[in-house]
Amino acid sequence: MPVKSGSSRNSHLRLRIAQVAAQLMAEHGIRDYAFAKRKAARQLGVTDSHALPNNDEIDEALRSHHALYGPDEHAETLRAQREQALAVLQAFGQFSPMLTGAVLSGTASDHANIEIELYADASKEFEQFLLNQGASFKVADRPGRQAYLIYSDPADILVTVLPLSSQHAHSRGRADGAKRMNAEQLSRLLQEQD
């Protein structure tokens, strides 16, 4: 009878932690990957931090979770979130907004925010825009970046304001590999899904 190697055991632990983290994110609205990983590891009694999955592994587990548990409901929710995101991208057009995060990747749950990145000379310029629109919002806590949480229905919108000077660099590709989509690209995606 073959004995499981250490790497095989570690792979199995990573997968199991990713599955539990995905369940926590989908069912309890946890948005922080690191927190979900730590909580899942604690629930499973895993203390080895090397066994923690990366965010891509959790995204894959989220896709599997949604495919198994209520795929039709998830598809409807995701469609509504993407339609809302398109309206937001169009409304914020003067700031060259881009959709990022779980709504773009397709892993969003009912609790997910619509994540938008946009460009402005100063965050106060965008804040004044929100005030002029009568939007209900608060300044959000994002390390090293100015962000706003805009209260909306069905999903809240988390907007990260990036310096206008970085727009050209980001258009060539992100160093962190984050996927992004503008309004035109999102509109095409929605049409393809019809």
Describe the protein's architecture and organization.
α1 packs across α2, α1 (6-28) packs across α3 (55-68) and α4 packs antiparallel against α8 (183-193). The radius of gyration is 19 Å and the shape is globular. β4 (145-150) and β5 (157-163) form a beta hairpin. With 194 residues, it is α+β, with helices and mostly antiparallel strands. It has helices spanning 6-28, 33-44, 55-68, 71-91, 101-105, 123-133, 167-171, 183-193; strands at residues 98-100, 114-120, 137-142, 145-150, 157-163. It is 53% helix and 15% strand.
Q: Kindly provide the radius of gyration, computed on alpha-carbon positions and rounded to a whole number of angstroms.
A: 19 Å
Instruction: Count every helix, treating DSSP H or I runs of 4 or more residues as helices.
Output: 8
Output the structural class. alpha+beta
- Overall spatial form: globular
Distance separating the two termini: 51 Å
What's the β-strand tally?
5
Stretches where pLDDT is under 50 for at least 5 consecutive residues are 172-176
In N-to-C order, the SSE pattern is HHHHEHEHEEEHH
Sheet with the most strands: spatial strand order: 1-2-5-4-3
Portion in beta strands = 5-15%
Estimate the mean pLDDT confidence.
Answer: 88
Main sheet overview: 5 strands, mixed
Question: Helix amount, in percent?
Answer: 40-55%
